[in-house]
Amino acid sequence: MNHLLMVWVLVLKVYRFDLQDFKKINPMGTVPALVDGDVVINDSFAIIMYLDEKYPEPPLLPRDLHKRAVNYQAMSIVLSGIQPHQNLAVIRYIEEKINVEEKTAWVNNAITKGFTALEKLLVNCAGKHATGDEIYLADLFLAPQIHGAINRFQINMEPYPTLAKCYESYNELPAFQNALPEKQPDAPSSTI
Amino acid sequence: MITDHRLHSVSAKLKLYSYWRSSCAHRVRIALTLKGLDYEYIPVNLLKGDQSDSDFKKINPMGTVPALVDGDVVINDSFAIIMYLDDKYPEPPLLPSDYHKRAVNYQATSIVMSSIQPHQNMALFRYLEDKINAEEKTAWITNAITKGFTALEKLLVSCAGKYATGDEVYLADLFLAPQIHAAFNRFHINMEPFPTLARFYESYNELPAFQNAVPEKQPDTPSTI
Lengths: 192, 225
Hints:
The structure holds 2 protein chains of 2 kinds.
Chain A: H1 2-9, H2 19-25, E1 34-36, E2 39-41, H3 44-54, H4 65-82, H5 88-97, H6 100-122, H7 137-151, H8 161-170, H9 174-177
Antiparallel strand pairs in A: 1-2
Chain B: E1 14-18, H1 23-34, E2 39-43, H2 54-59, E3 67-70, E4 73-75, H3 78-88, H4 99-116, H5 122-131, H6 134-156, H7 171-185, H8 195-204, H9 208-211
Parallel strand pairs in B: 1-2
Antiparallel strand pairs in B: 1-3, 3-4
């Protein structure tokens, strides 16, 4: 899922790493990791902010202070409210310690709570996209989250019409299309 | 109420909805004092369930703390609040000017807010204790903190100064201080494997803005603490 965020913003230079070499790049052993000359950055949010600061066009944050805050809030709901509860380590743990049904319930609950919050947050300030008619930070976090929710976790989007409308708007944009998991160089050739 | 001699005049006083023990609220309390901003402290007792009251839910439909009210504007997430405060009241700046150091601040912030804190909040405690048992809950939280602190130690060891990313307090420090405080005081984490983080923690303890923000010193801190 995090590949989506990376590829959307980057003009790609592709580096290939051996697994052993990768831990020299990122001791945490997580993706994504960005290498820019001597600089290595290991977190999707940090990478995106770095890119926005170094390459300011188009800006990923609006000028208005309140709209900026809404973007940060939406980002945070995804980054800290939803995604940590659906990552592989967590879902394996719950499945192992309790069972599969609990795992599914746990993930569904995290996504539902987060999407409910996002819907309330964005309903009055959404335009074509999450916080207006331009793509901003919130959209970069929403697109992969909604994509995962629909495709991996079969979440029903009916209670979240604002989020569903945002998601449809992303499907019209090449930058978002090209970032999908299914379209990456390392996507398996068989259906996921 | 926390005051500071560098009071800014604001047209309506800021209001902070906070819980004494919330590490997320703790971050914002530090930020407000660093910026010299006067604010009204409105306690939300998470143990009693105040966060589900209809009045609070009008402020924050998510039912979480902290929430900041600035006139007509309501902001509901500690990171968003801190960035809003830094945008609106730029002095002292919470991010350095160097791109790479800024990125390190964002990384440290993200490790705390997405890899550690979500695994130690009240909803998760109750779930794990309820569905499995208290020992598993403790093991889970200890593991999350240990993994996160290991990553932070590696991230910061080569760029730390007196504080996380140099000799000035920045965004990373606002997230580290409450996390280390909780790890130490609530979860009894041994800090020996994390000497860089332990050193920061001692530095924070010398700063009034950090001292005044600790859970033990808030208007709603229980008298038994």
